[in-house]
Write a sequence for this structure.
């Protein structure tokens, strides 16, 4: 999938209504000056509707931070893909390590969510990454490949179904200790080769893009985004700070 540099801001459970409104207005304005950068924001569920209205007609895209694998029904507290789309979402983050850790999300659940997102027309941003201990044990590549295979097994994307893979080493998320850009690149290559083993190369090129996530900010973003192996970044903390978020958009404009 040919792609502009991508900056995804995952605002997690941060920013109240006023802060969200202020930040989105500035992001919208900055993004309008950088047409070669794809900007995607993922605010809290409760603000999706209002942010979606603000973003109407703008090039900034909206993402849910999670979704459920059924379209409707008795699933208290869950949000469906059609509901996200009604609020204006084009993307949805799936399988974030914080959900795996605190809510025991499994690869199987992530697989079901991804299939549902694709069926409904949302672009899934699928998070994959190893723990610090797994990296220390030298099994990082094995772990990420196993996650990939468990999540993508049985899926054959159609021509129009785009998928974003976000490599987020868990030890780098929210720690200020980012993964070395070359190591991130190598791991993403491992993932892309695993995808090529599952699908044909042209399918991977056509349907997939890859992001790195974990302690990126405006001062480091250009070390990662190379327009080839790493197409963009998935950012938490820095994306909630005005200067950093706008700085990242500016930094990757070519
Ligand atoms: P930080 O940028 O705060 O490390 O978070 C990364 C992340 O989890 C994005 O989804």
């Amino acid at each position: 999938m040919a792609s502009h540099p991508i900056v995804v801001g995952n605002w997690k459970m941060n920013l109240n209504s006023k802060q969200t409104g202020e930040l989105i207005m500035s992001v919208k304005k900055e993004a309008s000056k950088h047409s070669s950068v794809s900007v995607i924001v993922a605010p809290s569920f409760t603000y999706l509707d209002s942010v979606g209205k603000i973003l109407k007609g703008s090039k900034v895209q909206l993402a849910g931070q999670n979704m459920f694998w059924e379209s409707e029904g008795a699933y208290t507290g869950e949000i469906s893909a059609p509901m996200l789309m009604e609020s204006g979402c084009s993307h949805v983050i799936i399988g974030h390590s914080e959900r795996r850790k605190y809510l025991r999300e499994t690869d199987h659940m992530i697989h079901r969510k991804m299939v549902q997102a694709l069926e409904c027309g949302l672009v899934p941003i699928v998070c994959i990454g190893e723990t610090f201990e797994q990296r220390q044990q030298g099994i990082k590549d094995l772990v990420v490949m196993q996650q990939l295979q468990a999540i993508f097994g049985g899926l054959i994307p159609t021509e129009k179904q785009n998928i974003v893979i976000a490599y987020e080493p868990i030890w780098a998320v929210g720690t200020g200790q980012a993964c070395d850009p070359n190591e991130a690149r190598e791991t993403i290559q491992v993932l892309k080769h695993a995808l090529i083993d599952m699908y044909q190369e042209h399918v991977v090129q056509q349907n997939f893009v890859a992001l790195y996530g974990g302690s990126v900010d405006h001062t480091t973003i250009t070390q990662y985004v190379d327009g080839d192996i790493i197409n963009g970044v998935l950012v938490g903390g820095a994306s909630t700070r005005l200067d950093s978020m706008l700085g990242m958009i500016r930094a990757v404009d070519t």
Observations:
- Residues 10, 96, 168, 173-174, 213-216, 234-238 surround 1,3-dihydroxyacetonephosphate (CB under 6 Å).
- The chain has a mean pLDDT of 97.
